[in-house]
Structure formats: C-alpha cells, structure tokens
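Reference record:
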Amino acid sequence: MTPSIADIQRIAAAELSTRPRVRYVLLLVVSATMLSLLASLWITEPALPLGTNVAFGLMAGILLSWVVFALWVLTRRRVLFGRDRLVASRMALGFSVASVIATLAIGSASSLGRQAYVGALAQLPLCAIAAAMLVRARRRVHVLLRRRQELETRGRAASSLEPRAPSLKP
C-alpha cells in the first residue's frame, strides 16, 4: 500500500505537534526534580550504609539518563519519526529488568529475602509494560521505514520519467 500525501501530512503533523513536546518537557521537569531531591537527600546524609549509597547511585544514574534523553528529544530540530519512542522503550525495559535483578540480588544477599522477592515480583508488570512498549515502538519504526522506502522508490521513478533539461555544454 502506497501512502497518500494526506497520510504523510498526518504523520508529520503528529510528530511535530506540541502534545509530544509537552510530554517530553514534563519528563524533563519530573526527572530533574526527582534527581535534585535524591541528590540533596544523598548529600545531606553522609552516614548511609553502603547498600543505600549504591541504590541511591543507581537511582541517580537512571534519573540522569531520563534527563539526558528528554534533552536529546527536545533539542532535535527535525522530526524523530519513532526513534525517540524506540530509545525510550529500550531504556524503560533495561531499567525495569535491572531493577528486578537488583531486588533479587538484595533478597538473596541479605536478610530481607521474602520481602525483596515480593518487591521483584511486583516490578514484573513494569517489565511487561516496557516490553510491550518496545514491541510497539519497533513496529512503528518498521512501518515508517517501509513508507520512507516506498516514497524514495516513487520519487526515483518519478524523476526518471521527467524530461531532463538539455545541457548547454558544447
């Protein structure tokens, strides 16, 4: 199926609309706020146990990653056509899986055992949601790449049919 001009305009309007930009601004504000709150708590409590310091460091790294991602999306001057969704869903899945693994490790290495295992179990729906988001983002990018290829093929075919201007060289 060849996309129509209306389809292309609809896709471009959706990618360029302010609604996705507002979502990324919200992501930036929330992530930066959470990072600053976590950092201020971490800095003002110097006598935290090693495990807490490690957990705070991992959480700060995750929050910083979301801040950098939101800045990356917001500073692009061109349409991203799904790349942002693909990157975000990969990050979400990676962070969710890492969180489950870390919680299981804490459960096996400490006296928390059962509570940590319940915590890991409670995080599994987040992993499933992130995996579904990744599948959806990959499908979206695949559709967009296929449409681009169709347009390029149509453009090459149309340009080969157009009469060429005669050369002025002798």
About this structure: Residues 113-161 form the longest helix (49 residues).
